[in-house]
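Chain particulars:
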Amino acid sequence: MREPSPSEDLQRIIESANRLGIELDEAEAIQWLSALAADQGDEIVMDDRAGVFGHRVTMLDFSPDDLEHFRRIGRLVEFQDVPGVVETALALSGSSAQSKIQTYPGDADYFERINILAESRQAACKILADLIRQKARATRRGPNYQLTEVKFGSYPQDLVKGGRPVSKGAPVGWAPEEIEAGQIEAFSPDGQPVIFLWDEAAVEPGWTKLDWVIADPPRGTLANASNMLDVTWEAPDGSITPLDGYLDPYFQEVYLEAESVPIFSKLAQHVSANALDEYVVQLEKEVGKYLVKDINYGKAAKRMYNVFRLTGRYEEAAFIRELFDEPASMLYQVWSLIRTLDECSQPGSSIDIDTVRAQADHLLVAVIEALEGDEETIVVRHLMKLRRSLDNLQSGRELTAGAEAARAEVINIVNNFFYEKMTALPAIRGYIDQVQKKGE
């Protein structure tokens, strides 16, 4: 029986990949493209051996190899059920949920559905506020982790906080000490003191997310761990209401426990019929952000991959999929290094600068082992400069001018790397040009 030949579009992708030295497995690419395009019946599939489940397209990119690692971190970031009051379902999201293709994910991203059974919306909001504050205080600092921020509530008016203006309606970012105090101190635009209370934020919780930095001693690295919450209120009559006004879809989540199926199933039936279109629109906004405003071609590439695979642009998705399966894609870890370096330099940080140095050393070795020729020379030179700038730094102290300059150079070289790789495929270059032109 004759083996299927690749389409003309796929052949162009293979040729582009070969020019860049990207090893694209033709048979695997065809298998993946066929699986995406096929109508396979059930939208949600279960991996019985691993005990995880998710949308069938998402599960094509998930590998259980690091599952125990992610479950271990999950025990820190997750919220617990409260019988008869709180139901939860924890999932991996982002690059963590795409571990089959993203050999070198930058962060440990989680998503948790929290359903609160209460007599009223007000009561549900109060329960949520108490849950988050208790979680934040319990995980503020430990031997291998540190809470960095909690997003909870929206600013009721234009304010100035920490010398920076914040707009009415913007999500409130709470530092650990502000959560402990239960209030944020700010000023009105005309200079009058304003106190914003945690209990006031509970009235409209809005977009809710918790962030930590976690040390991983066995790997000698630091990871940014986050848990984004999708909170719903279940009234006595069984009706479900999202507390932020929107029930998130499930197109990029891998749920970590089979026991979560009942709560997931209950909530999933309330997801909008237009959820996929709305999800793609949100992703495209993020793509625009990273291509126009906060330039980061690595983050843009990951979001473009999801846009392409969910909108039928499978050839472009296949190209980016292979890019992130390449050894060179470990450069994406630069963003994790930069972020933990920034957190380490914040006043009062408990992140050990030695751990940041070890992370930089580990990344340097990985780059040297993976890259070759001029590409390696340029990247290693800039990483070495950044690494040397860490020698005189101390935890909780601002970056020196030399460290700031080295940091900017590394960011620039990694951006150039991802831009050159992605734009080798004309279809992706055209998409990027279109987004950037629209954002001008």
In short: Residues 8-41+273-440 form one domain. The longest strand covers residues 221-234. Residues 401-422 form the longest helix (22 residues).
